[in-house]
Design goal:
Elements lengths: L6 E10 L2 E11 L4 E5 L6 H7 L8 E6 L2 E2 L7 H5 L2 E4 L11 H11 L5 H14 L15 H13 L5 E5 L7 H16 L4 E4 L3 H7 L2 E6 L2 E6 L1 H6 L4 H11 L3
Parallel strand pairs: 3-8, 3-9, 6-7, 7-8
Antiparallel strand pairs: 1-2, 1-4, 4-5, 9-10
């Protein structure tokens, strides 16, 4: 018997008026799995991700986090969000706080930890992303790749059950993309459950346990990377991937 999923989407729908952004998404993500979501812009990838922690409200369906339906009105969404780390395209760091101050803010303000304990945990999280030596620096003193790694540490420090990444490298210079992807691979190797929306096809192919191709608000195809990239079943998948391989 496989373990129960950390994340389960059941007939998830999202509409803006007459525009259907998500058209009944069914998806399970299991403990320790790295799932990459690829597809054209406007296919609903980011909306799906943001529905997973209710940054966007779904129009219908269920979002189950570790067996709890977080779309129910009586759910303590702030408590649930402590179990879900989120890394965005933009780093969203506070410029007036040090790197360590940014990483430990939620530990102190949300979880009520003392400064010594928070700093110890924060330094350990920075060590995981290779930035312990930048603890006393300010965001403006860091490269974009370093800032994004701080944002990852800020999410990881809360020890979430699930990490969501919304195109975490799209705002980075090409030379700093690799350092962020390396940290993400290390998190995966350490057992973190991750759902990643990305345009980095090489990363999806090399690091993902499963690749999902979305188009027009629906999951068109999913499977192991070798299958989706090597022998896609659907014409829409083939046409999309051809843009990255130079074939077709």
């Amino acid at each position: 018997m496989p373990p129960p999923p950390i994340l389960e989407l059941v007939s998830l729908r999202k509409s803006y008026g007459a525009l259907d952004v998500l058209r009944g998404i069914d998806l399970r993500v299991f403990p320790g799995e790295l799932v990459c979501v690829v597809g054209p812009s406007g296919s609903g990838k980011s909306s799906m991700l943001r529905c997973c922690n209710r940054l966007e409200q779904s129009t219908g369906g269920q979002v189950m986090i570790d067996g709890v339906d977080i779309t129910r009105p009586d759910v303590d969404i702030n408590a649930v969000r402590q179990q879900i780390g989120m890394v965005f395209q933009q780093f969203n760091l506070y410029p007036h706080l040090t790197v360590l101050g940014n990483v430990t803010l939620a530990l102190r303000k949300v979880q009520g930890k003392g400064s010594v304990e928070a700093d110890t945990l924060g330094l350990a999280a920075l060590e995981r992303v290779g930035l312990a030596d930048k603890a006393r620096a300010y965001p403006a003193q860091l490269s974009g790749g370093q800032q994004q790694r701080v944002a990852i540490a800020r999410a990881v420090v809360l020890q979430p059950k699930l990490m969501l990444f919304d195109e975490p490298t799209s705002a980075l210079d090409p030379e700093t993309v690799g350092e962020v992807l390396k940290v993400m691979k290390q998190l995966r190797d350490a057992g973190m459950t991750m759902l990643v929306v990305t345009h980095e096809m090489g990363f999806a192919r090399a690091a993902a346990d499963r690749v999902i191709f979305m188009d027009a608000g629906a999951i068109v195809e999913q499977g192991p990377p070798a299958e989706v990239f090597g022998a896609p079943k659907h014409e829409r998948t083939r046409a999309f991937l051809a843009r990255f391989t130079g074939e077709g």
